[in-house]
From TrEMBL:
PANTHER family: ESTER CYCLASE, POLYKETIDE CYCLASE SNOAL-LIKE DOMAIN. Residues 42-133 form the SnoaL-like domain. This is SnoaL-like aldol condensation-catalyzing enzyme. Residues 1-19 form the signal peptide. It comes from Chryseobacterium lathyri. InterPro entries: Cyclase_SnoaL-like, NTF2-like_dom_sf, SnoaL-like. Keywords: Signal.
Length: 150
């Protein structure tokens, strides 16, 4: 009898875990679109007013020196990125999502003809808005073809 109870408990636990871990692929696809749209509006279009409307009021940016809220982030990016490199552009190479997180791998150029950098940005969404950001940026060595990095 104890074995039957144990087996039943394990079976119920397995079904409970499986139900909890079920991914919502439609939501993840929507999150990828929201993050990609924001990425282009923010970095390529440099439309800060539209970008701000796409950001959660409690937005947190984990990039060093970029501030923690919407206004601090926009101000820092305008001063330290667009202020120095007004022709800065991104090109999305890969995008993936799991739950409320979206990863975007991109090729960035500070100016036309720049050899560029590879970047991995992670965005957390809440309520259909960009709520949090992390990134990792890597210079592409001059002796490496940029496309070999993606």
């Amino acid at each position: 009898m104890k074995k039957k109870i144990l087996m039943l408990t394990l079976l119920i636990s397995a079904f409970t875990v499986a139900a909890q871990n079920k991914r919502n692929l439609a939501r993840e696809a929507k999150n990828k679109k929201i993050a990609a749209d924001f990425f282009i509006v923010f970095y390529n279009d440099k439309n800060m007013e539209k970008a701000k409307k796409m950001m959660h009021p409690d937005f947190i940016n984990h990039h060093p020196y970029s501030g923690k809220g919407i206004e601090a982030t926009v101000s820092a990016v305008q001063e330290h990125l667009f202020g120095k490199f007004p022709d800065f552009k991104v090109s999305i190479k890969r995008i993936a999502a799991e739950g409320d997180l979206v990863w975007i791998q991109s090729y960035t150029q500070d100016f036309p003809g720049d050899h560029g950098k590879m970047s991995m940005d992670i965005w957390r969404l809440r309520g259909g808005l960009i709520a949090e950001h992390w990134d990792i940026i890597q210079d592409i060595p001059n002796d490496i073809t940029p496309s070999s990095m993606y």
